[in-house]
Amino acid sequence: MIAYIIRRALYAIPILIGVNIITFVLFFVVNSPDDVAKLHLGQKHITTQQIEDWKRERGYHLPLFINGERQGVEKFSETIFFQKSFKLFLFDFGSSDSGRDIGYDISNRMWPSLAISIPQLLVGLLVTISFALLIAFFRATYIDYWAVVICVALMSISALFYIIGGQFIVGKLLKVVPISGYDTDLHAFKFLILPVLIGVIGGLGSGTRWYRTIFLEEVSKDYVRTARAKGISEQLVLFRHVLRNALIPILTGVVVILPTLFIGSLLTESFFGIPGLGSYTIDAINRQDFAIVRSMVFLGSVLYIIGLLLTDISYTLVDPRIRFS
Question: What is the pTM of this model?
Fold first, then answer.
């Protein structure tokens, strides 16, 4: 197991390097360092010296990938790509183009993101698995048919519709909870109810349909028919046998997203004014702050790789037949 984890960790290095290269190229294809400097200086009449000073303060005065004025290793190390990317592998995110400490911002903003994503995940799992089991119990009936139709309809609706519709109905018409905003401590609860509720409803269709497929696949297997032949009720078959044996595919969808809960939801946080990492990333994209965008893309890639690794490890806990060498 240890050898497997080390091997997977080594595989992650070229993947992260590739992600950094793609992010870097995409950003600087759109904007040159001079364009970034002009955007952040935000003045009508900007001198060449002001642009050069801004670039030098933030390390954008170097060549992008290859420094023709240097020799040996410095030909590649004295570049914007190396200077901006190497420290990321040490989780040193540095400062944003506006001068803020990115690491400090991440450590503060991840808590509002977790306050939304964790309840949304737990409540969503409980609701979707319960509905999927209920549909599996009434399989091949009109309840099953119309449940699938409703799930497909829910999946076809844009997430923006749920957000805007929820804000209008629950926040504006009924005035049950605030439309947007955030507060600290226990006062944040009233601001989190609506985003969590909308997140659960938005994922209800796809989640229920996915788990229904898993349960129906298990229901058709031989061990289920054997359990029924022994006289076990259908309810016990579903909860004692089907649900337990469906844990592996369920873990695939759950464990892999656990680390990425820190990143938050881009749309939800932006529309509800939640100061989490999702809105932090959106604001950075709007300001074209490459330092923050690069850090968040790198962090998201690392967390996703960790999620895949945790998924593989969790397989061995659920199914003892699976072993890694």
Answer: 0.80
